[in-house]
Amino acid sequence: MKPTLFVLAAGMGSRYGGLKQLDGIGPNGETIMDYSVYDAKRAGFGKVVFVIRHSFEQEFRDIVLKKYEGIIDTEVVFQEVDSLPQGFCPNKERTRPWGTNHAVLMGADVIKEPFAVINADDFYGANSFQVLADFLKEVQDLKGKYCMVGYRVENTLSDSGMVNRGVCTSDENGFLSGIVEREKIERNAGIITYQDEFHQKQKIEQGTLVSMNMWGFTPDYFSYSKELFVEFLKENKDSLKAEFYIPSVVDFLIKENKATVRLLDTTSKWFGVTYAQDKPIVLLKINELVNQGVYPAKLF
C-alpha cells in the first residue's frame, strides 16, 4: 500500500483572501502546492488528502483539485472550529480552528495507511519527499514508528529578513529528542545566528537540522491524538486562541515512550514567501530548477 500525503490547507482562504489569489510561482502559473503534489507522486505516494474549510470547498475543487484529475487520487476533509469530539462545544466567540494537530485529526476516517503531513504553502523539494516516502514504506505494518524531515538551517533562511525555526536535537541513534524554538535567525557574512532571551546573538552551526512541519506517521497516531485532544479540550474548551499543535503531541509521545521519531536529513532547500519581497526570489529559484531539469516547465 502506498503512503498518503496529507496537506494542511484549511488556512488558505483567510491568508490569501480567496483561492483565486493563489500565487503562481512556476512558468505556467504552478502554485507551491502543485510542486508538492508532483514531488509526492514521483516519490511513490498514492493519494493526496487535503484538509480545508467548507467556506471555499467549491472554489478549491474547481481551481485546485481539477488539475490533479487522472494524475493522482485526491480526497478532501474539513476542519472547522466546531469539529470537536462529542460532548464539547467551542466558545461562541472563537473563530479559528484548533491548530495543526486538530487538522491532522480530520483525516482519521479516510487515512488507513502511513501518511505524511505538510503545509500547503511551503515548497519542500524533491529529495525531502523521497526520503519521507522511503521511510513510510518501511513502517507499513508497524506502530509508533514516526519520522520528521529535518532541514539544514542554511537551506531555510529568507534573504529578506529574520525567521524563527524549531531547532532539532537527536540521540545517538538518530531519533528526535527535542525541538527548541529559536527566534530572529539570520545570516550575515556567512555566519548564521539567532537571538537568545537576553537579546544576544548566538551562533547556529551550518548543517543544524530544523523543523519545517514535514512529518511522517503510522495510522495509530490518530488514536493517540484523539485521546490527547480530549484532554486538551478539558482545559481549553472555552479558549479563544489555544491550539493543539503537532510538536506538542509528538513531544508527549516521545517522553511517554509510546513512539519514536526518526530525524531524516534532506538535501532539499525549503522555499516560502515569509516576506512580500521573497516572492520574486522564489520565482527565480523555481525557474532555476526547471532549467536544471528537476521539474518540467508544465507540471500537469
Task: Please characterize this protein's 3D structure.
The protein is an alpha/beta fold. The chain has one domain (4-150, 211-291): Spore Coat Polysaccharide Biosynthesis Protein SpsA, Chain A (Alpha-Beta Complex), CATH 3.90.550.10. It is 28% helix and 25% strand. Strands 1, 2, 3, 4, 5, 6, 7, 8, 9, 10 and 11 form an eleven-stranded mixed sheet that branches. Strand 7 (176-188) and strand 8 form a beta hairpin. The longest helix has 17 residues, at 220-236. The protein is globular.
Relevant terms:
300 residues; Spore Coat Polysaccharide Biosynthesis Protein SpsA, Chain A; 11-stranded mixed beta sheet; 8 helices; 11 strands; 28% helix; 25% strand; globular
Largest sheet: 11 strands, mixed
Q: Which whole number gives the mean pLDDT?
A: 92
What's the N-to-C terminus distance? 24 Å
What is the CATH domain class?
Alpha Beta
By DSSP (H or I, 4+ residues per run), the number of helices equals 8
Which structural class matches the secondary elements? alpha/beta
In the CATH hierarchy, what is the superfamily?
Spore Coat Polysaccharide Biosynthesis Protein SpsA, Chain A
Overall number of domains = 1
Uncertain residue segments: none
So what's the overall shape?
A: globular
Which radius of gyration do the C-alpha atoms yield? 19 Å
